Amino acid sequence: MRLLYYLLLKPLSYMPLRLLYVFANGIYFIIYKVLGYRRQVVWTNLSKAFPDMLEAERKALMKRFYRHMSELMVETLWCFSLSEKRLKKSLQVKNPELLNKYYQQGRSVVLVLGHYSSWEFVLAGLNYFVRHLVATIYIPLTNKTLDRAFHRMRVRFGAEMIPKKEFSANMQAGSNEPRAIIFGADQSPSISKNIYWTDFLNQDTAVAMGVEKYAKKYDMPVIFTWLHKLARGRYQVEFELITDRPQEEPQGAITEKHVRLMEKQIRQRPELWMWSHRRWKKKRELNG
Questions:
Q1: Among residues 226, 259, 221, 256, which one has the least CA distance to residue 241?
Q2: Residue 126 has pLDDT above 80, yes or no
Q3: Quick check: 120 and 75 in contact, CB under 8 A?
Q4: Most buried among 52, 129, 208, 222, by the most CB within 10 A?
């Protein structure tokens, strides 16, 4: 992988994005037409999420998803050599003043987003546009070469990367600067405790309560992060306040609110969400 990265992936990352989209067409053909990468998983997820959708419409949606995933791959590759010029051309923040208000108050915030649109652009570049120190919780990759590549990409503009296992200790240690802490809220929970069950995309869904837990513990405003795809390679971030008084919210209320916003975003342009994830593996244990 080390040779592949330095001899192929890294050089390709310097190419203009419009040329990389030519490779995206080939990737689409291979993963969808030839390999059928997780096609059954995608089809099952789409069928359960949109049971009233005509089969022909669902097939068209599945193709659009694989097109998006192919483009996402080359856009992520492009981010390995992301420059300030590239960033300003590809990403914009619609309402940074919402975060700035809390920065002036000296308050850290929680940013909630999902595997939707081009989240790697946000992880790599958001710190350039906001006054908070952007911090991302992550699980280190098994492959050390790729782990270092993604780490360099995400800290290029000064963001902070916090390994998931070290997050609690990091929060307890505190920070001299208000932080905007990014939580990916559409992951399937890895443990059975501290789970919130709700209906999400027409399915009984387990949701991790990390957003709610830490927002309440450290009194951090919770902000949903909309990721709008304006065009190929052009994205916009928009912030929406969920609550700036988390400790006053009833148990489960914050989690329910960000789940509903995530669902709303996905339903607007469903092809931009990662349907290839095995999101609904965990089943609720019923008594009796």
A1: 221
A2: yes
A3: yes
A4: 222
Q: What is the mean pLDDT of residues 199-218?
A: 95
Q: Any idea what DSSP says for residue 199?
A: E
Residue 27: how many CA atoms within 13 Å on its side-chain side? 17
DSSP 8-state code for residue 285: P
Contacts of 64 (CB under 8 A, 6+ apart): 271
- Taking residues 32-53, report their average pLDDT: 96
**219 closest CA partner among 130, 110, 112, 113:** 110
- The confidence score (pLDDT) of residue 218 equals 95
In the predicted model, what is the mean pLDDT of the chain? 93
Alpha helix (H) ranges present in the chain?
Answer: 2-4, 10-12, 17-28, 39-49, 55-79, 84-90, 97-104, 119-125, 144-155, 167-173, 210-217, 253-268
pTM over 0.70: yes
Q: Where are the domains of the chain?
A: 2-272
Residue with tokens 């995608």: 42
